[in-house]
């Protein structure tokens, strides 16, 4: 009986002398890895996971038709890979096997997976499948953020903004700054909010507008809406009604309800009321 090899067979041809042979051999070794891990990555990798190979795009959600396959191959690859452990947790979560997902996330956290830290932290924040523990969630988000995971910094800022266990706003702002420099649109937006509201440091509308503009350029719906507001009111830069309308339109097209309301307000700036102050109708241009 033939055994299925656990390693991808990589066939390399060498030509061009010793230097070319050495370069080709190194490339060959770099591409040689577990076949199970390759398949696990292909159908269960998280696009935001810093551990993800650069040549793997990843999926925001594992396709229902791929869940069983993901569990099978990620489970085989997991003992030798923290990335596969995290992806196994994702596959179990997609299959609504929460206890198994939590167990996989815990093991991945122990091995240093920053993405598993974020996912387990979110479960702790909501008390989903585990006892609610915002303090532990904050610690996990901090570890993930310091490990270079943008979602760690984003959730660290969010847990404070939502009234949860207070995070150090100065540290959260610093972590978001580093993450924003890596061109994360969500980090840029969250940092813009902190700058606009003076959280974790001085209020700075000019810097906030710059962050919103960077995130808006990547089609972040909320950043587009805030850019519309800043342009409409001349906050942090020039007032520009046409630019404001354009930002609102893009945000509205992406489903932002505040932007839709802003567009209606721009179109219908006057409201007709009766003697009691009841709104009768809008007066539109």
Major β-sheet annotation: 2 strands, antiparallel
Widest β-sheet, arrangement of strands? 1-2
The low-confidence runs, each spanning 5 or more residues with pLDDT under 50, are 1-32
How many strands appear in the DSSP assignment? 2
Work out the helicity level.
55-70%
Distance, first to last CA: 80 Å
Give the mean pLDDT: 84
Helix-strand pattern: HHHHHHHHHHHHHHEE
Count of helix runs: 14
Q: Strand content of the residues, in percent?
A: under 5%
Morphology: elongated
Structural class assignment: mainly alpha
| Rg value | 24 Å
What does this structure look like?
It is a single chain. The chain is mainly alpha-helical and 285 residues long. It starts with 16 loop residues before the first helix and ends with a strand. The chain has a two-stranded antiparallel ribbon. The longest helix is centred in the N-terminal third of the chain and has 15 residues. The protein has 14 helices and two strands; from the N terminus they run H-H-H-H-H-H-H-H-H-H-H-H-H-H-E-E. Helix 5 packs across helix 6.
